[in-house]
Structures are given as structure tokens and as C-alpha cells.
Prior knowledge:
6 copies of one chain form a homohexamer. Chain A has 341 residues and is α/β, with parallel strands linked by helices. The first copy, chain A, has one domain (2-330): UDP-N-acetylmuramoyl-L-alanine:D-glutamate ligase. Chain A is 34% helix and 22% strand. In chain A, the strands form 3 sheets. In chain A, strands 1, 4, 9, 10, 11, 12, 13, 14 and 15 form a 9-stranded mixed beta sheet that branches. Chain A has a 4-stranded mixed beta sheet with strand order 3-2-7-8. Chain A has a two-stranded parallel ribbon with strand order 5-6. In chain A, a hairpin with a 2-residue loop joins strand 12 (237-247) and strand 13 (250-259). In chain A, helix 1 packs across helix 9, helix 9 (280-294) packs antiparallel against helix 10 and helix 10 (298-312) crosses helix 11 (324-331). The longest helix of chain A has 16 residues, at 140-155. In chain A, 64% of the residues are buried. The E-F interface holds E 15-16, 269, 271-275, 310-311, 313-317, 321-322, 326, 330, 333-341 and F 16-19, 21-22, 92-100, 102, 167, 169, 211-214, 245-250, 273, 277-278. Strand 3 (25-31) of chain C pairs antiparallel with strand 3 of chain F.
Amino acid sequence: xxxxxxxxxxxxxxxxxxxxxxxxxxxxxxxxxxxxxxxxxxxxxxxxxxxxxxxxxxxxxxxxxxxxxxxxxxxxxxxxxxxxxxxxxxxxxxxxxxxxxxxxxxxxxxxxxxxxxxxxxxxxxxxxxxxxxxxxxxxxxxxxxxxxxxxxxxxxxxxxxxxxxxxxxxxxxxxxxxxxxxxxxxxxxxxxxxxxxxxxxxxxxxxxxxxxxxxxxxxxxxxxxxxxxxxxxxxxxxxxxxxxxxxxxxxxxxxxxxxxxxxxxxxxxxxxxxxxxxxxxxxxxxxxxxxxxxxxxxxxxxxxxxxxxxxxxxxxxxxxxxxxxxxxxxxxxxxxxxxxx
Amino acid sequence: xxxxxxxxxxxxxxxxxxxxxxxxxxxxxxxxxxxxxxxxxxxxxxxxxxxxxxxxxxxxxxxxxxxxxxxxxxxxxxxxxxxxxxxxxxxxxxxxxxxxxxxxxxxxxxxxxxxxxxxxxxxxxxxxxxxxxxxxxxxxxxxxxxxxxxxxxxxxxxxxxxxxxxxxxxxxxxxxxxxxxxxxxxxxxxxxxxxxxxxxxxxxxxxxxxxxxxxxxxxxxxxxxxxxxxxxxxxxxxxxxxxxxxxxxxxxxxxxxxxxxxxxxxxxxxxxxxxxxxxxxxxxxxxxxxxxxxxxxxxxxxxxxxxxxxxxxxxxxxxxxxxxxxxxxxxxxxxxxxxxx
Amino acid sequence: xxxxxxxxxxxxxxxxxxxxxxxxxxxxxxxxxxxxxxxxxxxxxxxxxxxxxxxxxxxxxxxxxxxxxxxxxxxxxxxxxxxxxxxxxxxxxxxxxxxxxxxxxxxxxxxxxxxxxxxxxxxxxxxxxxxxxxxxxxxxxxxxxxxxxxxxxxxxxxxxxxxxxxxxxxxxxxxxxxxxxxxxxxxxxxxxxxxxxxxxxxxxxxxxxxxxxxxxxxxxxxxxxxxxxxxxxxxxxxxxxxxxxxxxxxxxxxxxxxxxxxxxxxxxxxxxxxxxxxxxxxxxxxxxxxxxxxxxxxxxxxxxxxxxxxxxxxxxxxxxxxxxxxxxxxxxxxxxxxxxx
Amino acid sequence: xxxxxxxxxxxxxxxxxxxxxxxxxxxxxxxxxxxxxxxxxxxxxxxxxxxxxxxxxxxxxxxxxxxxxxxxxxxxxxxxxxxxxxxxxxxxxxxxxxxxxxxxxxxxxxxxxxxxxxxxxxxxxxxxxxxxxxxxxxxxxxxxxxxxxxxxxxxxxxxxxxxxxxxxxxxxxxxxxxxxxxxxxxxxxxxxxxxxxxxxxxxxxxxxxxxxxxxxxxxxxxxxxxxxxxxxxxxxxxxxxxxxxxxxxxxxxxxxxxxxxxxxxxxxxxxxxxxxxxxxxxxxxxxxxxxxxxxxxxxxxxxxxxxxxxxxxxxxxxxxxxxxxxxxxxxxxxxxxxxxx
Amino acid sequence: xxxxxxxxxxxxxxxxxxxxxxxxxxxxxxxxxxxxxxxxxxxxxxxxxxxxxxxxxxxxxxxxxxxxxxxxxxxxxxxxxxxxxxxxxxxxxxxxxxxxxxxxxxxxxxxxxxxxxxxxxxxxxxxxxxxxxxxxxxxxxxxxxxxxxxxxxxxxxxxxxxxxxxxxxxxxxxxxxxxxxxxxxxxxxxxxxxxxxxxxxxxxxxxxxxxxxxxxxxxxxxxxxxxxxxxxxxxxxxxxxxxxxxxxxxxxxxxxxxxxxxxxxxxxxxxxxxxxxxxxxxxxxxxxxxxxxxxxxxxxxxxxxxxxxxxxxxxxxxxxxxxxxxxxxxxxxxxxxxxxx
Amino acid sequence: xxxxxxxxxxxxxxxxxxxxxxxxxxxxxxxxxxxxxxxxxxxxxxxxxxxxxxxxxxxxxxxxxxxxxxxxxxxxxxxxxxxxxxxxxxxxxxxxxxxxxxxxxxxxxxxxxxxxxxxxxxxxxxxxxxxxxxxxxxxxxxxxxxxxxxxxxxxxxxxxxxxxxxxxxxxxxxxxxxxxxxxxxxxxxxxxxxxxxxxxxxxxxxxxxxxxxxxxxxxxxxxxxxxxxxxxxxxxxxxxxxxxxxxxxxxxxxxxxxxxxxxxxxxxxxxxxxxxxxxxxxxxxxxxxxxxxxxxxxxxxxxxxxxxxxxxxxxxxxxxxxxxxxxxxxxxxxxxxxxxx
Lengths: 341, 341, 341, 341, 341, 341
């Protein structure tokens, strides 16, 4: 069983490439980094429990219903607080990027306190715990509960993974990412990041990469992965997603992984058009957790993660609603998009 | 020119009588007591400026666009703060009442401070200022700015009106309605309330009325109006809306007014089905301000207010989008709902 | 086979009781008095051809597709002209009446000229021709073609029916209804009108009726029907629809008929809520044509017409999409609205 | 824990009172008598497992997701078969009744066979089992599994309830309701029916009742309940829903119950407008099971059931999404439909 | 006049690239291989009759309305049976292919029997009959009626065309495609297939083609066409569509034809983005039938077919709603997609 | 302050790439060449007044509300006439171009007469006036008012700009573009055109350009710009948009400018997919007016115009809703379309 912990928000998205100023209707779903990972893994058939804090109102209840509908367990979700965090999304196209407005201050999760979650009970029967760098960025309380969870997970013998997920606009509660994250990462076994996270959190830079130019080089990230592992010896796996942003509608997508001293790479997918790239990185993590848990071959785990998250870009919403069979069909080289009748 | 001041929120409503837990889309408009009054009056053709504080993001801009589209001036709106207040609405039917979830803590308006609005400039050329009991309930800052506005309005020689609008779930910033409201009401010329406000704010009760039973008696409210005027001699007009809630889809609707020592009553309308009752009271105030400003006869002003707000119940959204001609047609006795070709 | 002739317009309606000023989407159908009659009758299973003139663009083609989908023949529709007429509809509720904006000037039908329709060919195999007072009101050309059609129908031995359908906002081409209509009515066998038509077109008034008060008295219309027949001896049937407009959502509905010297009346239905009353009168005519063509008993024909048009008020759009079985169920007294499984 | 068993179908409903022939979009939910009961009870906070058979495709998976989202357990649902049953719904208004087209032949549940469900495992920890007369009507296999379930439930010491739910269009597999139902009812403790079921299944008639006339008399049903209990001594509770169908938009609604030799009655609600009456009877059963399980007073259980199902008529979809607090508010006499802020 | 025969299904498609598990609304149209051909040809202005069997309910009636609206004759459609076949569609994007769930067992057409269609009457005045390999795959009865139709068409002197259209998931009624198809193809004059059909039905393979790799070579298919013609001497035309599936959003598209001993090829179109590829092959057949019927030059017929079906990929729904002028504009080399004002 | 004058129409667009014949809903916005320029500039924060003539009905009022919502002043709009012009839009994809049906004959603006607009008052405080070649094409009255405006603008010392905007289907009132336009252009300072305008209006051709082949060469247009300036010495700026139409979904886009004797060029953008290209040219003009008014460097003005109008192609509707910051981000080379969080 996988356990993930973090904030899930009400996602309100404009339809049909509308800008927010034009919208007279908003599409309702829910999403957040850790919940997106939970949903990915639940979708592949593994048992999953998601832990968060939600208000005792119909929006909190709707969120739990949403999670359950995708097979994510909600038994350990704490109830309380004043509001659910919200994010507004307008999906871009061509040269116009997507835009997100976060409205998450004062959320139930932001006001969580240590002791509100009974972690030993949560972790009964669990094998894996996943957290991300968003959670300690939200508030002092969230950071403290995140540490509490990681420590309890280690105590219970779980594999601990994290997504560095640096968000510059958060981290306003008094301490910075570089102050808080090391303690948490040092307790983890698996770390995932994108091309910016390592630099922003740990000051570790790749070489020869111009992110804005839309070019990514797997090579350049080997040293990044190695440096991270040298700094955090507990990490026997470091994986990096490699996104080439050619436009809002066209990305290249791949990933690399340094695992037990070896480097693994995966094919690069050309994704066009992008239906919804929010949650793309989370779906990579979901695929990787599934892959490392299921396949004896790390190469296969990485390829599964990359193919799974490639497919995510064609699914509206934060959650990656694809099956193991669909991922394996793409891994097998069939990107033809033929009609399955 | 009318000036109103208060909080306008993003309104997210479920379509088709759905409950919030069922919604996969939400209808987007904006609304709030004082803005609703502004829109009513602008719609009748009078110049109106609305004052509030909105965040400098696309939701704040969309809100201003919405106001301008209905002819409400936005020149004096302050920009700043972190978020726009939000309210979620599910519209009830038959025995199931509508339900509102407020999510307005930490809004730009809640964090307003005295000095942010240049009231003397705002009031240049204005004749009337309207505020409601919601604003001082929101935060200490909002209460202070409300007082600042009322004092400036009086100094500038404007007519000042208020809607008592008691909201039990607000008033959490340290002082109660009965502590704060008297100072503000004592500076006003016109006060409007519904059947509960006078009791909740001032402890003044009608006699022989059972609100839940859906019966209202104009008679019983004469003494309420008189007691309010006795307590606040500045008030030369006190008006009370009279709603009989037979069900979420069927209300009776009327109003009474004590004005310069005389009591005025109006016909009672049977409204069925109710399309949207949010903003019903505000549309009464809008009609009354228009009526008292335009008609020499107070009886006509009251009848205009009651007919206008009767029509509001057939219009989706917070704003009352009806014309003077439409209100006067109903005042003239034509409630036949015939097709206007 | 029934033939009807007139103008069919693109109907653009706001959804969900929205006012036109609020609409960001409009619902697309097509409708017009004579086409509505055609669709009613086609729906009961009789062969029907509809004659009009439509532009040679995709809107004209979409209109023909719409007619054909409901079983109405489009073989004799003339193609040409610059535009299809349009009407905008906002559906009212409670005290707010529905509102129609016509945008039909310069339509293909308004510019029709005699000789464009080959009436003898149209009437081959036909038994009944129906026209309404809207067509001669549109333009001099439309009036001339209407007369051409009525004369050809008489020459071909068809039964000719008309709906007086007075529309004050039309009749702008130079002659008035009272100048033009008599010649046309004098060639007809069946005339239908509502409570206002006879007065507006022929100056014939009922007694003791206050239309705006929402009360109608079948009695009072007996003399109206008799006077019409005295003036136009060709009319062996005059029928009058009796609508009591209590509100936009609540009407009473019935009809009476003077046929071959005898008076027939029908039950009065209480219709609440009204889903769409546009086309209500047309659906009465459709029911009456079907009834008089099918049932030996005039009483049954009238009752069919009234029950059919009662049901129309529950169907969105101009067309009455109900079956003979559904009408007969209501005629049989079952207005219970039980679920048919 | 409650267990219910039966068929859940894909429900495809036209929006906005459209007729099926007009629909270009259909609203997707799922529903079925026994699942509706399960959802009601889960919604009140009791643990519930729903048992059925669904195909191993995305429609089956979507159905399970739907159930889980409302808190209904899906652990014991069997997977297999070729298709999910479907029903098409057009919601009526005024005199036009709603219409249902069933397309359920060959469904996964229709092809269920004994042995596919491990009933002793299902019933571990359960206190109550509910079935309806729809299930044995579907197919020989479904009838056999229903009997298997009832017997296992009795063996496990559960309370067994049934809804007679006679559907004339089913019962095509070779045996009739009157042949099959007695054996099943004879094993049950609680039976619920509407005004037609007892007559259609057992030939037991009320006196002095004209169903089509929209009048129901609680009195007349006392003898019906008594006769049923005399025939099936295992039944210590017989409850009957009392629906007065004035129109598709306006019903009266109540219920009566004969329980351990005493007769209980409840207030009658006037429901107008009806948003969705499908599942109304099921929501009564859900309320009754909750009430009999929770309240020591049978009178309170009946009142809860009637009030709960009254509220259902305002909720779109088959499931009754109301809380215990909402039901109790209505039971307490507050039918005013005021806005809950 | 063209006659086509086969099954038309209710098509329920998710909007906006949603997966079926996410859908709360489904888009309603109708489609099926032979009906799609009929609609294409009707759209070009030729008379067309479509023959099938549909249930006598509102879904069957809606289907006939849909066909008539696009100019397809429904006079000879048989009524009866229990249900209309359904297919559910989720439209893919990028690497995620579209997915179809068929729910067509037990449809009215599957239960058709010889004698239900009066073929000699159907073929009066007709010149061309088209069938596809889907129909004999559905059921023994459908196969028998298909043979009955082909024989009657030959007897009446019509040109007979077929689309091989191999569907592996059908062919469950006892005989295989390779047993049934030869007798039918041997009576046909024109055969169309895609890159897989010839192999699956007749074991005839192209050389040097890797379908999944998204590459197609017109060359390789010459031998396929020749081998088919050698085996079935009645076929004076064999055409093959050439689809290169680069992704669900990007295909190349062309076709080749062997006609009276000569090979014809056409330009290859790069289609991006694909709006709806369902019915792409059918629109090629529709274009080819129109082309061979209208143009003296087979090269022009093939180019028309390829250009027409290229355009189909931009039209939502199964039917190809493009005009002859639009196809000829593309044939003329204008693929610029400029706005036509 | 910028003033623009012309016709704004009700825009009714099909959703989701539907063809007009398929539409059951139309998306409502408003647009027109000169209003689109006004909205662009208002959006960048400059004061703008838009002048037109609109009917005194709810469609005219909705149009004014729409303009105001985007910050465009409506103080000087004349009220009167019978109808608002309408255009119907179906958005193409891949090889199928978008299609527009204009329905603007008899519009309020077409019937405008000199003297209806008080130009000296309009131009108080204004610096810039913009008109396009559409307005004089509409009617004799519109042409006369356009000339009246241009003369008054010159008299008031404003900069005058024009977009040649040749529309072959207009110009039906008696005089041709080549007769009318020279007088107007000769009074202007800035002229903008696309690759066809100069040839159609003035007979000035570029060399070496094949528009349909989707290729454009900035070089070839230098001589065009020079020839225009030689003919109209008042023009110190001539700019030409350079669109390469590869398909309805894929264009290249750039522009060049000859300004005070020097030639400026800009980068070429590859736009894919195009969300909405209507108003693309207008957004170039809006960007150019903003740029020339704001930046001292003409090169920067041109680059701003090209980048701004590139972004327009990703925004649904006629109006370009992008900020200065978004344009400058793209000018700075960031076309990566990354999510802005």
C-alpha cells in the first residue's frame, strides 16, 4: 500500500482555451501533487491511501468523493479548518502558456498541526510513503507534519520518496526551502525533480542546458543526479523529468534516473497537442513508484514512468487516468494513436 | 450619482438544481449586497460608482469587467490584497433550501485599511451613499473604512442609506453587531432591513409573526420601524422587506416603509417559481433608492422597490437586470407574464 | 397531405431563464407559425409539405434539415434571397414575461415574389392548405404570394384554414391588416384566432373579458365566433384559443369552436410550470387540423386540439413534439404526469 | 452495515425538459432501485456494501467509481458479462409525464448465475440486507441469486427488507411475479410498496382510491398492509408510500407503516416543482432503513423516511443526496426553503 | 439513386478529450459504416435511401430524424426489435488513441430476418447498392439479408460496391469472415478496404509495410489490389485507403485504386490536428461512389474520394458534412485553410 | 486617447469545430475590425472610445456591455436603427478553413447618416483616430460618416490610421473601393494592410509571392509599402501583415513596416494550433498603435505588434485579451508556453 500526504485543491478551469476574464463557467475537478500521484498508482491497481486535511463542508466532501471515485482511500483524511485551497487554471495554446492563480492561503491543510494525524495507524500495512516539496512550503504546521510523517514512515520501515517540486511563490512562512528541505530529503530513499528543482532547492546546476530554449539534454542531468545522491546518501534513486517546452501545445518529454549507481535513460516523446500538462510530473512519479514496486528491472520502471506521464498530457484534469495496459502499449512502441475498437 | 461600498465576491453556482457534491461545472458571476444595489440603480439609468478593494489578478479584473458591463463605475476601486472573496451557491427547490458556502476570509476587502480610499474624491458629484451591515462585520479594517465613508458622505452632504443585513456567521473580528452598528446607523438617513435584522442587531422584535411558518404581517412591522426611528432620529425612512417563505420555489414578497412619520404599504406578490432569490433584498434597496430619488411620491417609491425586487426573483445571478419600464408594467398590475414581441 | 406556407426563422433562445444581456450561449432551433403547424401534423403521422423561401447558405440548409428531421417535407421550398429571418427569445418566469426580438426584415421570404412557387404542382395530392395572418403582414410580395396560394388551393379543391395571428409590429409595407386580411379570410373554410385577433383584425370584440387579469370566459367568445362567421360565410369553422395568463409560468388553457352552426367547448387545463409557450397557438391549430381530418366528431377534434396544445407548453422549442397516443392519454383525463416506463 | 443487491444501470437523461428526440447531449449518472437505497443510507453515514455484476469495461468501472464517490462499498461487485444495463430518461413537466426507455436485456446482472457471489463473505459484519422485486423479474439467474442472497442473509441473522417494486415490462423469463415473489417475501422482515405493488403482485387492493385522480388516502392502505402481513407472518413491518400525482411537476407525498401490529402515519408534503422523481420510492426505503436502525421510535423512523424522500424530489439524479440534518430540519416543520448561509 | 444497408448506432461520445470514466455528459449523434456512406453521398446532392432495422421507440425515431435531416431517405427502414445498437467513443489525442466500446448485441438489425425488407421495391429507380463487411459479421440473419440484398441488387442491374471493413470483435455467430465474405464479394463490382482488411479477410498481404510505424506505401498495395481482383473477377475496381498513423492527432492520408486494369494514385494529405477520424474510411467510399458516378475520369474520382475523406477528419461526428465545392477546392490544391467570408 | 469607428457585430460561433449545420448552440460574443483594435489598446491600459451606431434593444445594450467590460468607452455610441449586424462563424481545422456568413445588411451602422455623430466632441482629448476599409464599404452613409470623421480628426490634430481591409462581398452601394478609398487614405498617417489589400484596393502587387501556397516573403512587400507611400505622401507609416496559411490550424505570422523611409522587419512565428484567427490582423493594428504611441523605437513597435497578434491566435473571440507583460515576454523570445504559476 502506498500512502501520500499533501494538499489537494479545488481546481477550477476555463473551458475551450478561454482566458479567465472570459469565463462564464468553470470546470470542477480536484488536484494536487501528492493526490495526483495517489490517483496514478490507484489507477494501476495498487492500494493507496491519501492523507490530507479538508474542511467539514460540501466542498471537502466533494473532494473526498472525487478521490474515492478513482480508488484512492480517504480513511485517514483529517476534517477541520475553514476552507479548501483553490486553484484557477486557464489552459494555454501555441505561444500562450497556461496560467494558474493559486488561492490556497488559510486552507485546512495550511492550518494542520502535528498530532492531528495518527501516522503509526496510517502506516499499518503500508510499504511506501510519498511526499513533495510543496507541503513543507505551505506553512510551518504543514512542514512539521510532513517531517512527522517522514519520520514515522522511516520508523515503520517504509520506502520514502519525494518530489522536490520547488514553488517560488510558496515558502512564505519564515524559513526557506534550502533550510527546510535537506532534513526531509535526508530521510528519503527516492527523489524526483525537474530541470529547475535541484538548482532552486540545493543550488545544483546542470551544464549546457537552456530551459527556455526548449532543449533538454539527458546527459547534462547525470551530474545533477549524482551530486544530489552524494549530498543525500539515503537516496538510492534520483530521477529527473526532462521537458522540452517548444510551445504550450507542443513539448518533448522524457526522464532519466540514477539508481544504485547506474544511470538509466528513456525514449523522448514528442507530445502534440497537449491537452492538459498539469500533473505531468506527478504522473511520472506515480509511474515510477508503480514501476519500482512492480518490475524487477529499473530500466523498465523508468520507461513505464516516462510513457505513463507522456499519456497524461492527453487527459484533462490533474489525474492520470490510464491503465497499465495502455502504458505498456506505448512502451512497446505503439504511439500510432489508432482507434481501439 | 450613487456610491456604494462593500465586498463583491466571485459567485460560483451549480447549474440545474445540482447539489455542490454533484457539480462538474460552476456558473461564474459576481455579487455582493452593495454591488447588487449599484447594479440595480445603474440599470435604471442613474450614474453609479462602486467602491471596493480587489486583488491585482485576473479574477479581480474579471470582476471589474463584470461591473462595468452593467454600467457600474469602477474608477475608485482600490487594487491590492491577496484574493477575491468567493461564495458557492447551490440553488434549492421545493422543500430544499438554497445553500451558500462563504469563502471570504482574507479577501482584499477584509484587509482594507483606512486611508486606502480617498472618500472626498469619490464623493465629488455624488448625492447618495449606500452601505450595509455586511461590511463592518467582515473585519476591523472594513468596519473602520465603512465608518470613514459614512462620515465623509455626511460631510459631503450626501443622503446615506444602509441595509442592516445581519449575518451571524460573520462578526468574528472582536466586536459584535450591536456594538458597532449603532454608530453607523446613527449617521444614516435611510435604513432597510428584513424581518430578522432588527431583532438580531438591535433586539427590536415584531409581534405576532412566525417567520418559519412562512407568514408575514406588514402590520406587525410598523412598530419595528417606529422603534428603530425612535432610537435613531437621523433615520427619516425605515423600510422592511416582507418575505413569506412557503418553500424554496414559492415565496410571497412585499415591503412596508415608515417615512417622515407616515406608514406606507405595498401589494404582496406571489412568486412561483423562484429562479434565483439571492440578491432579492438588495434589489429592493436598489428600487427604493431609485424611487426615492426619482418619484415625488413615497408610496410610488415603495411600490417601485417591491415590484422591482419581485422581478429580481426571476433573473439568474445576484444582479437585478430589469428596466424601469418592466418594473412600471408590473406596478401597473400586469403580472400576466405575456410574451413581449 | 397538408401544405402550409409562411416564414420560418432561426430561433436563438437564452438558456436557463437568462436575460438576453446575460447570454454567452444561445440555443439554436427554428420556428414560425406555419412551420409549427406543419411539424405538429407531421408528428401525428400525416404527410406534410412546408413551403417557404430560404437563402442558399448553411443557415438555410440547416433550417431545411431541421424540418426534414421532424418529417416535414421540404421539396417545394424556394431558394434565394439574402438572409433567413431570426428571432431572439428570452424565456420569462413568474411575473417576468418572455421577450422576443424579431430580426426578420429583408429575409428571403420577405422578398418573395409571385411566380416563385409553382402552386399547382405543390398542391398535387394535397387535401388541406394552411396560412396565417403573419405572412401577408411581412411584405407586399409575401401578401401577394399568400393570396396566390389561397386562390390556387381553392382552385385545387383543398380545404383552406387560417390563423388570424395579428402582429402589430409587422404590417409596415403600406396596407393594414384590415385592408388585406378580408380577401384572404373570405377564401378560407376554417379560421382560428386568440382572444385579441378578432378585435385587432376585424374590430369584433368579446364581452366581459379582461385579458390582462388572466381570466377568460368561453361564453364570451361564442358571439365573436358567430360574428366572424356572419361576416365570412365561407368559414364553416371558427375556433378560438382561450389563454388565461396568470404569470409567465402559470396559464390556464382551453379553446372553443363554432362549427357548422354548433358551439363546442373543451376542458380548461391549468399549466404549471410552462416550459415554453411559444408555438402554443400553432400547436392548437395543428391539433385541430389533425382532429378535423381524422375524427368524425368535431367535439373530439376540439378536445384533441386543446389537449395537444396543453402538452406543447411542456416541450422546449417552437415545435410540438407529442404523439397521438400522448394527446389521447391526456384527453382521457390522465394529467397525472406519472413516469411512463 | 447494510448490504443491497440488484442492478445498477447507466442513466442517460435529457437536459432541460428536452424530449429524447431533441437531445444532442445526455446527462450521465447511474442508478437502480437497490443502489439508490445503498446511496441514501451511505449518505447518512452508515457503512454500506452494494452487490451487483458489472462488465469489465470503462462503463463498468465508471459505475463503480460513481458508487464509491457516494460512499457505497464496491468490494463485492462481480465483474463479467457483456454490457451494463442502460436507461434513457426524459423528465416531464406539467401534464407531460417523464418517460423511461429501458435497455437492460443481456446486462451483466441479467446473466448472473448462482455461485458468482460469495454471500457468506459478503454478509460478514452486516446487519441488514435489502432486495427489491426488480431483481427476480430480470432473469432466471437473477431470481436464483436473489433467493440465494435472501437465504444466506437469514442464515447469517440479518434483517431482510424488500421493496415489492412491480415492473410489468420485466418478468419475461418464464415465471410471473406472483409465482416467484412469495417465496422471497416470506423470508423478509420488512416490506415496502407503493399503491400499485400489492395489487399487482399479490392481488391485494386498497379501497376507495383512484390513483389516476391524484388522490391517496392513508386510511385505505391500512387494510392493504394488514393483509400483506397476514399472508407473510415474517413481516413485522409493512410500509406503503403514498404518492398523489397531480401533474409531472406537482405531487403530494406521504407514507404509512404497519409495524408490530400498530399503524403509523406521517405528514403529507406538497412537492412543487419536482426536479427529479426517479428514485423517490427508493429514498423512502433508504430513510426507513436508516430510521428503523437508528431511532427507537417507529413513528420517527417513518417520519424520517417520508421527509427524506420528499427532499429527494428536489435532487437531480437517482441518488438522494441529503444529510440527516437536512431531513431532520424538514421533519421539524421547516419547509420554508430559506437560504442556508 | 444510391441504396446502402447496414446498422446505424446511437453514438455517445465524451466531449473535450475526456475519458469515458470522467464523462458527465455524452454527445449524441448516430453513425455506422453504411449510413456514413449514405450521408456523404446525400450531402453531394445525389438521392440516397438507407435501409436498416430500428426499434419502434424514440431512439429509433431520433435516428431516422437524424438521417432525414442530412437528406438520407428513410422510407424503407424496417421497424421492430428491441433496441438500437450503441457505441461509446472517447476521442484520443497525441499518443492516446481513441477508444470505442460497442454495445450492439441484440440490436434490431442483429435480429433482422430474410423477408423483412422488400428489396425489389427498395431498388426501384436505384443505380447503386453499397454494403460493408460489418453487416454479415453481426448475425446470421444480418448476413442472410445482406446476401439477399446483394443478389436482388444484381438482379435489378445495380452497381454493387462493398467495403471489406473487417472487425475482429464481431463474427461471433458461427461462421468466419473468410467463410462468408467471398460469396458476397464475388457479386460486387467495387471493393474498398484499408491496409488490414485484405489480409484479415482473404489472407492477402502487402509487402514492405509496417502499419504501426505509421508508414504506408501506395506501391505496396498495388499487388494487394491485383490479387483481390484476380480472385474476384467481378471486381472491376479495387480501392485501398492509405492511413499513416503518426499519432491520434496526426495522420497521413491517401488512397490508391486499381480500376479496369490501371492503377491510380492520389496525393497524400498530412492531417493535423484530427478532430474526428471515425468514419474516415466511409467518407472515402462516399467520395468514391460520388466520383465514379459523376466524373468520367477515374483519376478524378479517386482524388475526390481522398480529398473528401481528408476533410472528414476535421468534422465532428461520423458523417462527412462537406460540399462538392469544398472537396474540389482542396483537390485544386488549396489546403491553406483560409477564412471563407 | 484612441478613438475608433466602425461596425461591431453580434458574433455567433459554433463550438468544438462543429459545422453550422450541426450546431444546436452558438457561442455569443461581439466583434468587428475597429472594435477589435479598440479592445486591444484598452487592454494595454490606454484610454479608448469606440464609436458606432447600435439599435435600442437588448442586443445593442448587450454589445455595449461587452465593450465596457473590456474597458472600451461607449459614451459616444449613437442609438437607433433596426438591427445589429450579425456574423456566423464556424471555426475550421486542418484542411477545412473557417467559414463566415455575414448578415449585416440593414444594420444600425449601415443606416448611419452624417451629422449623427458629433465628431468634435468625440475627439476632445483624443490623440489617435483609427478607421478601416470595411466601414466605407458598408453603405453610402457609412462612407460619408467615415470621411466626416477622418476630416474632423485631422482638423483636431489627431494621428489617423487605417487598415485597408478589403472585403469583396461588401462594396455594393454604388461606388467601388478604388473610387472611395483614396480620398480617405490620403488623409491618414498610418496604413496597414495584408498581402491582398494593396492589390485589391490600389492595384499594387508584390512580386514573387504565391499566397495560396502558404509562403510569404517580407522582401516582396517592401516595394508594395514603398509604392503605397509614394502614392499617398501623408502616410509616414505603412505596415503589412505577413500570414503564411499552411492550414486552418497552422499559420506562420509576421509583419513588416516602412516608417519614415526605413524598412523594419520582425521575427516570424509558427502558430500551431490556431484557436481563433478572426481578429488576427486587428490585433496587429492594436499592437502597432500601442507600440507607436508608447515606444520611441519603431522596431520595438513593430515587434510588439507582431508578438501581440501572434498571441491573439490562441484566444477565442475577436478581441485580443493579452497584457503588455505577456506580449513582452514573447518579444523577449520566450515562446515556451510554460505554465505561469
